[in-house]
Amino acid sequence: MNERPELTRNQTLVLSKLEGQEGPLSAYQLLDLLRDDGFRAPLQVYRALDKLMRAGLVHRLESLNAFVACSGHAHAHAGDVTAFAICDQCGQVIELSDRLVSERLDEWVSKTGFKPTGAVLEFRGACAACQARAA
């Protein structure tokens, strides 16, 4: 599926806010940014985020309990494990996806008899720019 699904007004607003940010946002940060657009309750944000995640347009960063817009095309990495490199200093998030890595991880997990329903890999550390500033 390469087409963007039809989105509601709220989903479009949430996605636009995430796409316009340098780093991840929590649902409550999104709510604060969207109050002028008529958002009044966290449930409005969570419903939009749920649909956007199912459509592959948004990712949840488990360790931060925050969300980022997908950096690739929707479902460009469908079936692949998506990994994130998160800079602890500036908050930059880099999305990584590789078919061979995903296949290898699937092999490892399937050998155990475990049937995963999802996976998120997060690497924490310092991005190249922050490393250069510290040097």
Describe the structure.
This protein has one domain: Winged helix-like DNA-binding domain superfamily/Winged helix DNA-binding domain (Arc Repressor Mutant, subunit A). Helices cover 38% and strands 19% of the residues. The protein contains 5 helices and 5 strands; from the N terminus they run αααββββαβα. A 3-stranded mixed beta sheet has the order 4-3-5. It has a two-stranded antiparallel ribbon with strand order 1-2. The chain starts with 8 loop residues before the first helix and ends with a helix. 21% of the residues are buried.
Strand order of the largest sheet: 4-3-5
Series of secondary-structure elements, N-terminal to C-terminal: HHHEEEEHEH
Give the fraction of residues assigned to helices: 25-40%
Structural class assignment: alpha+beta
Q: The CATH topology, please?
A: Arc Repressor Mutant, subunit A
Indicate the overall shape. globular
Number of domains: 1
Main sheet attributes: strand count, strand direction, barrel closure: 3 strands, mixed
Task: Please supply descriptive tags for the structure shown above.
135 residues; alpha+beta; two-stranded antiparallel ribbon; Arc Repressor Mutant, subunit A; 5 strands; 3-stranded mixed sheet
Q: Could you write a compact summary of the structure shown?
A:
The protein is an alpha+beta fold. Helix content is 38%, strand content 19%. The chain contains five helices and five strands.
Task: Give a topology summary.
Blueprint: H1 9-19, H2 27-33, H3 42-54, E1 58-61, E2 66-69, E3 82-87, E4 93-97, H4 99-111, E5 120-125, H5 128-134
Parallel strand pairs: 3-5
Antiparallel strand pairs: 1-2, 3-4
Helix pairs in contact: 1-3, 2-3
